[in-house]
């Protein structure tokens, strides 16, 4: 391993370089949260075809055990009005502002991120093949890879060199072929695309939450707070979420107990009884991505009518304030609907 000082210098250089690029508006990227997108692997036709197919299914057709409308491990959130977004954006280019009043009907939200065990049941019954498996690879954070896997890879993501496309990485093999999930069945499923997540939710008779529903759920009944529990990251020194402690991307001290994902039931629930709304795994929402929003009041908004990327919320175990301060309820990021990575999962919602 290189000396910490040269690592720090490298990171600083990368970040300065990216800041410059962002500043002149060439890319929307930042220090790497949304960089793990598929580019040039699927054709446009493939991508949009898949998105269209599954969004139709997710929105219109409910099949499988979902027809029982099992609301086990879901919370019925009350109808209400909340402030979505913020007028004090920490990452303005993500479209965190403006703050706007949003009214929502009552809906159900999963208490937990969908776990490997739950996803396994879905795959066992439906024989669903995830997009990572179809493409034959998925993005994995370099710090998690064995030397053997790393040595076989030559192309990193230019804007975020810690993301590597790993052949054979998928939800059953989160760090590539030499890894497995046997001791992580209660952790969030990873390497699932938006299309995979939508298919799962439809199968259990649910759907992905809209971004507005997700953010309302994240806020747990509190108004204008950074985190689901308040404004302080670690009240009384306690960890309320699985994020990164130490120096990104070289040293994750794991002070919160986890350098990777944690069980979906870990860390305190928010005011609505929901777990890991921020941290652990990023979560897909049903909205298309756009960074300009009207400040007008809205009622059950479901995002732009079309787009190329889908919104993800909540940040992950890889997030640190120094490079990806996105473990806040107003924070947001995006990926193409066929993208998958080692820090991106989901939970489902349901209408009443
Ligand atoms: C799963 O990985 C663990 C190490 O993380 C290893 O000890 C175990 O043998 C593996 N199990 C299978 C079935 O490959
Ligand atoms: C990582 O960080 C911890 C705590 O900040 C420190 O004790 C440790 O020496 C660091 N390790 C490396 C390899 O820099
Ligand atoms: Ca952690
Ligand atoms: Ca999460």
From TrEMBL:
Enzyme class, UniProt record, top EC level: oxidoreductase
Record-annotated Sulfatase-modifying factor enzyme-like domain positions: 72-349
Enzyme Commission number(s) from the entry: 1.8.3.7
Main location: endoplasmic reticulum
Keyword Manganese: no
Catalytic activity: L-cysteinyl-[sulfatase] + 2 a thiol + O2 = an organic disulfide + 3-oxo-L-alanyl-[sulfatase] + hydrogen sulfide + H2O + H(+)
PANTHER family in the record: FORMYLGLYCINE-GENERATING ENZYME, SULFATASE MODIFYING FACTOR 1, 2
Function field: Oxidase that catalyzes the conversion of cysteine to 3-oxoalanine on target proteins, using molecular oxygen and an unidentified reducing agent. 3-oxoalanine modification, which is also named formylglycine (fGly), occurs in the maturation of arylsulfatases and some alkaline phosphatases that use the hydrated form of 3-oxoalanine as a catalytic nucleophile. Known substrates include GALNS, ARSA, STS and ARSE.
Subcellular location: Endoplasmic reticulum lumen
Subunit architecture: Monomer, homodimer and heterodimer with SUMF2.
Chain segments annotated as coiled-coil in the UniProt record: none
Signal peptide bounds: 1-29
Lineage: Eukaryota, Metazoa, Chordata, Craniata, Vertebrata
Name of the molecule in the record: Formylglycine-generating enzyme
Family assignment from sequence similarity: Belongs to the sulfatase-modifying factor family.
KW Isomerase (keyword) present: no
A GO BP entry: post-translational protein modification
Gene Ontology annotations for the cellular component aspect, listed alphabetically: endoplasmic reticulum lumen
Keywords (A to Z) from UniProt: Calcium, Copper, Disulfide bond, Endoplasmic reticulum, Glycoprotein, Metal-binding, Oxidoreductase, Signal
A GO molecular-function descriptor: identical protein binding
Pathway: Protein modification; sulfatase oxidation
């Amino acid at each position: 391993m290189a000396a910490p000082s040269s690592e720090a210098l490298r990171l600083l250089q990368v970040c300065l370089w990216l800041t410059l690029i962002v500043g002149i508006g060439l890319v929307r990227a930042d220090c790497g949260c949304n960089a793990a997108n598929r580019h040039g692997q699927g054709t446009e036709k493939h991508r949009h075809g898949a998105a269209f197919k599954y969004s139709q299914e997710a929105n219109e057709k409910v099949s499988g055990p979902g027809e029982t409308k099992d609301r086990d491990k879901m919370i019925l959130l009350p109808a209400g009005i909340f402030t979505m977004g913020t007028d004090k954006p920490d990452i303005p280019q993500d479209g965190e502002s403006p703050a706007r009043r949003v009214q929502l009907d009552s809906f159900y939200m999963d208490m937990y991120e969908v776990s490997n065990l739950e996803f396994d049941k879905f795959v066992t019954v439906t024989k669903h093949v995830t997009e990572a498996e179809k493409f034959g690879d998925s993005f994995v954070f370099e710090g998690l890879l064995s030397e053997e896997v790393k040595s076989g890879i030559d192309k990193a993501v230019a804007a975020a060199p810690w993301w590597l496309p790993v052949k054979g990485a998928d939800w059953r093999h989160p760090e590539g072929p030499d890894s497995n999930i046997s001791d992580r069945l209660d952790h969030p499923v990873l390497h699932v695309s938006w299309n995979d997540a939508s298919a799962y939710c439809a199968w259990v008779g649910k759907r992905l939450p809209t971004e507005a529903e997700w953010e309302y759920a994240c806020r747990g009944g509190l108004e204008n707070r950074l985190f689901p529990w308040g404004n302080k990251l670690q009240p009384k020194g306690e960890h309320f979420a699985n994020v990164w402690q130490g120096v990104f991307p070289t040293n994750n001290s794991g002070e919160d107990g986890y350098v990777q994902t944690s069980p979906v039931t870990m860390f305190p629930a928010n005011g609505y009884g929901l777990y890991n709304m921020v941290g652990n795994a990023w979560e897909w929402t049903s909205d298309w991505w756009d960074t300009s929003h009207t400040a007008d009041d809205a009622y059950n908004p479901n995002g732009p009518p079309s787009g190329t990327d889908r919104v993800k919320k909540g940040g992950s175990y890889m997030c640190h304030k120094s490079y990806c301060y996105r473990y806040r309820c107003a924070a947001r990021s995006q990926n193409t609907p066929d993208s998958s990575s080692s820090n991106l999962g989901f939970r489902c919602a349901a209408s009443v």
